[in-house]
Design a protein that fits this description.
Helix content is 47%, strand content 13%. With 186 residues, the protein is an alpha/beta fold. It has a domain of 128 residues: Rossmann fold. It has a 5-stranded parallel β-sheet, sandwiched between helices. It is globular and about 50 Å long. The two termini are 16 Å apart.
């Protein structure tokens, strides 16, 4: 069985401060990885700092970085900073997602645009930047977890809009896989 150690691996976790992303950051850090803990806004800064502290206490290395991943320059900065601090990116995990918690008949165009930007656009450019930053490595892994898909299992109809946007992100991931495959290990 091949060595599956995360020691000396560099992991970028989009929305890596709390919830699922925080768990992933802490788990990979405890397994020896250097973790880039992304968080969106000021309200998540304390969680990001706690996650970085937990990763370091468990034996990994980490730093937190704030950015609005619906803005392409912020996505590029996330990966550029990972390379600047840790030398490369081996694994990129995107857990950024938004679920709109109201009936679909009450949604606005602004609601949809916000959800699309978070669930689809951010995911698309996260994958693009990950592939660009892994092309000089001997491979890497890109994982996209569209958290709003989890809502499909709740039975609540107000998640339909988020599910549709998330499905778009999954389609984009399949399309990008063709172009990014040459940069990533199988």
């Amino acid at each position: 069985m091949p060595n599956q150690s995360l020691k000396e691996k560099v992991v970028v976790v989009g929305a890596g401060a709390k919830n699922l992303g925080g768990l992933i950051s802490r788990t990979f850090g405890a397994d020896g990885a250097s973790v880039v803990v992304h968080y969106h806004g000021d309200s998540a800064k304390a969680s990001a700092d706690e996650t970085v502290k937990a990763v370091k206490a468990a034996g990994g290395d980490a730093f937190a970085i704030q950015g609005d991943l619906t803005k392409v320059p912020a996505v590029a900065e996330l990966f550029d900073e990972a390379v600047k601090r840790f030398g490369r990116v081996d694994i990129a995990i995107n857990t950024v997602g938004k679920v709109l918690k109201k009936p679909i008949v009450e949604t606005t165009e602004e609601d949809y645009d916000s959800m699309f930007a978070i669930n689809s656009k951010a995911a698309y450019f996260f994958i693009r930047e990950a592939a660009k930053h892994m092309k000089d490595n001997e491979g890497g892994k890109i994982i996209t977890i569209v958290t709003s898909l989890l809502a499909a299992f709740t039975g609540l109809l107000f998640y339909v809009c988020g599910f549709q946007v998330a499905a778009g992100a999954l389609h984009a991931r399949r399309c990008q896989g063709v172009g990014a495959a040459r940069y990533l290990s199988q």
